[in-house]
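Researcher: Good morning. I'm working through a list of sequences from a screen, and I'd like to move beyond sequence-only analysis. For each chain I'm collecting a predicted structure so we can compare shapes side by side. This is the next one on the list. No need for commentary yet; just the structure.
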Amino acid sequence: MFLTFYGAAREVTGSCFLLQVSGKNILVDCGLRQGTDIFEGEEDGFVFDASTIDYVLLTHAHIDHSGRLPLLYKKGFRGEIYCTSATTKLCSIMLLDSAHIQESDAEWRNRKKKRSGDDLIQPLYTTADAENVCRFFHSVEYGEEKTLFKGFSVEFNDAGHLLGSSSVTVRATEGDVTKTIVFSGDIGNSDQPLLNDPKYLKQADYIVMESTYADRVHEVAGGTEDDLAYVIQNTFDRGGNVVIPSFAVGRTQEILYYIRNIKEQGKIKGHDDFPVIVDSPLAIDATNIFSEVGEMYYDAETKALLDQGVNPIGFPGLGVTITSEESRAINDDPTPKVIISASGMCDAGRIRHHLKHNLWRNECTILFVGYQAVGTLGHAILNGAKRVRIFGEDIAVNASIQKLKNTSSHADRVGLMRWLDAIDNRPERVFVVHGGDGNTEKWADDVRNQFGFNAVSPQFAESYDLLKNTRIKEGYTPETRSRITPNTVYKYLLESGGRIGELIRNFKGRTNSETKKFVRELDDLFKRFS
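Model: Good morning. Structure tokens for this chain:
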């Protein structure tokens, strides 16, 4: 009985763990690596043979947990995928969307390669791969123990992170020894709209636990709805639009939930039945799925609304746009409105169109409702850029720039401690994964010091014998990892250079002190590598 870590090992994306029991190969998650987590060659395939995988257990639909499933199919997987029905539904749209992005990105790169005479590239996977892998999904609901083969059963429990998200409990037997292995998935924040709080589990011989926000404590919950109402009221009184860059799945539906309450309680004065437009095909599809699933996925407040026949994320004045023509027409209408569009970090999608038409207007507000990674357009705007470049045009940032608090869908340090403290027994080992900036190592230290558990932060490709509780294969650090794959990351370096250029252009109009500080940081970088 062996466990090997092929993703989210001292990284925050790309979750992928290989469990080997009685000659069967079981993957828990198969996520796409994103941003700085991409290493040499791994974007092109897997270290293991995809055709040998018998089962996949999927904790939830987010792309950093599910996004390489079409690639797994492309490489020969023909096994079975188990997850909740809500996760199945969300993956049916999210994997197709991811495939479309892969194809569009390859098409864009190939236009440049044709002009330069370079070899063309293939997309990581296609929409056909995504459609095909969706045929292998099987749904298991919360609390239902499912036997996959003799001596191996699985149970999904609500992780409170996303619709259908789960912590997965595996009970595996080899010979006369049975081990209970818990994969936390992404543990949700408490008191989120729509969703239940995470379910606490009681027993585990081994725990594979996330540590995304193990280094912070969220602000005290509450006030989010009133803060949103305040922004809408003040912006509408100025005659402007509220533009919300939002993640299509999860965050958009939370914002709709808040706005429904705001409208019902009459918190916006003088702008009755104000329009709210969701301008993202993926967000629209996801919102429909949120409205279709059973009540088991929702918290008590949301269930009460459903029992009364009330759609918790629907209300008068809510509109959606499908076509690009409908999207462009939104800004032709002078009526103050809320525009919710993707992507959440403003790096792609229709949101850039709305920023182009609203950023320069003093009367408008750009309201951020999620994390903005360094180097993204959203990060530049949120951190004081005076001008940004969108579609080749310099746009002045005159709108009010705001950030909505208390919107994280991840448990913080306190929530992670509460989840782990619920375990009644003493696990043989806790594996800490899914954390950046040293979070996995720091949280493993905390688990050892505060709980007295044997905790480790495994490296990529590190393996353990779960019957003997011993490490049997050393992993690879980020520094040595490139040696196990044949390709290079030089193309990523070139692309990063392009992003640095974009970042420099966004500094136009900033204060001298900000610009000098950035110049000093660039000089330090040049000195280190020249």
